Amino acid sequence: MSTSLANRFRLPMAKTLRVIHLVFIFVFVLITFLFWQQGQLFNQGYRSSQLGHLESVIARLESRAQYKVDNLRYLKRIFIEAMDDPIFPGSPVTPWELNENTIQKPLWIGELPLPNSVTEEEAFQDKKSLEVRQQLNGLRKIRGLFPLATGDNELLADLYYISREGEFIASLSKKVNSLLINSYNPFEKQGSFVLASPLLNPKRAPFWTRQNIVNSDEALINAAIPVDFGGEWIGLLGIAFDRQSVEKFLASSLPDGSRSAYRLYDEQLKPLTKAVGAENNLQLSAEQKKTILNMLAEKKRGTLRSGLTFITFGKLKGTHSILVNTQTLGQGLHEEFGRFSLLLVTMFLIFLFFLLGAHSIICRLVRNMGNLQREMQHHALHDDLTGALNRRGFFAKTSQLSPNYVDYTLVQLDLDYFKKVNDVYGHLVGDNVLIHATWRIQQAIRSQDVLGRIGGEEFCVYLPNSDLKTGIRVATRIKWELESSALILENGLKLPITASLGVASHSEYPESSLDQIQTLADMRMYRAKTRGRNQVCWQDDADLEA
Ligand SMILES: Nc1nc2c(ncn2[C@@H]2O[C@H](COP(=O)(O)OP(=O)(O)OP(=O)(O)O)[C@@H](O)[C@H]2O)c(=O)[nH]1
């Protein structure tokens, strides 16, 4: 089919496909936007739910911390009252309390490596011995309360008292004692003691401190309250938490069924505990720490998405610590928001699958329809036997071409004695002669020339940009091509093929239409027949008679 004819059918199909692509792109963008919007809502919901969890843990931690501080206040009162308690007036300090081997005992008296510390012997020989005894009375009284503080309430387990002069340290457990001693740094003069001074703490309020433990990464968290007696600051009453007890404390504050990992950090984001809750060994990177600290400088709580991990963080009041919650994608998917998000993603994928499927089916249908249409068009314009243009196709094509070419020439040709071929050898051989003749004619013409089978054994060749002379030359070449190539039959017999040709050119009658030129060529072809066949005729009767 010629390109212009083919284009007539290709263009609408390309246009239809373009419209289909656009419609599908529009649907895809619209639905993706709706899913994205829904995803944003889920995201916001997830953020606030994570913040809500964090808030609840922070609230529990703060209330537990407050509870401990309230108890410290209460114990301080008992302690001071007990110092004046006449129950043990002037009672001697029993030797086991002074013996260093008694360190295993719940109430241990030892010596902190304070500069200018007073030795035990000195403490009980000079005037200070009374004061020491008074303090021991107070501690005995508090110790009397220890049995009441068993079970879940571990408040008193890590309770300690340090006299201001560092003469003794006393607590329930040997572990806390040794941690306190190890965390003590005489050169820094102990943060707790500085913060307990009346100058820095005129209200004598409880406070929290963090002490590094020498030769380890661990730290001790202290809730402490200054103790004053007789108008003088005499020591510190406190509760010490080592890492395990802080972790226990944190774990007991987590909401039931939490799928997140919580970790407590100090103000510089140095970890105070291991991760507690759902297993998650995430280490905050330097970049993440920087971002979190920057965000915390502006507000108390925040969230951060880091890869597949979601981080929520918030400051704790009073304790100078930061609680960080991390949730991995896997952990999040077990929660309600995670399940909804998974459902949303699955629905989107299903939608995408169906959209792509529908798009491919519709495009295939349109292409098939286009191909079918092209095939039908091809059949409508072409001869099935020879593949050349049929009468309709030939005139459709040449009438399209002729306005572009001022001069054109037509060669009309008719095979000679074709009826005989059919009659003698049968129609099949007749068909083969037609196919063979078409092929031979095509050998004799140029690619821009148009060949059509316009009747049974009748052909017409359109020669664009050609005058009569050229037409005669081409017609003679066709005649020669046909007569010089007989069809070889199955039995080896050579079947000669000849044709009578009539040539007419538009240049002869410039005012004539294509139909008129074709009629003229046809008349000349008949003249060639009557003059004996197998010849080219380009003249009219008048010319011949002349
Ligand atoms: N095998 C075959 N024969 C065809 C086809 N189309 C037309 N014919 C036959 O072609 C023959 C044409 O015969 P005529 O018009 O008498 O022409 P002719 O026998 O070639 O004689 P002249 O043209 O005078 O030389 C007829 O017998 C048609 O049946 C075709 O597609 N296949």
TrEMBL record:
It is an enzyme of class 2 (transferase). InterPro entries: Diguanylate_Cyclase, GGDEF_dom, Nucleotide_cyclase, Rev_trsase/Diguanyl_cyclase. PROSITE patterns: GGDEF (PS50887). The keyword Nucleotidyltransferase applies. The keyword Signal does not apply. Residues 406-541 form the GGDEF domain. Its cofactor is Mg(2+). One of its GO terms (molecular function) is isomerase activity. Its EC number is 2.7.7.65. The chain crosses the membrane at residues 16-36, 340-366. Pathway: Purine metabolism; 3',5'-cyclic di-GMP biosynthesis. SUPFAM superfamilies: Nucleotide cyclase. Keywords: GTP-binding, Isomerase, Membrane, Nucleotide-binding, Nucleotidyltransferase, Transferase, Transmembrane, Transmembrane helix. It comes from the Bacteria. It catalyses: 2 GTP = 3',3'-c-di-GMP + 2 diphosphate. This is diguanylate cyclase. It comes from Buttiauxella selenatireducens.
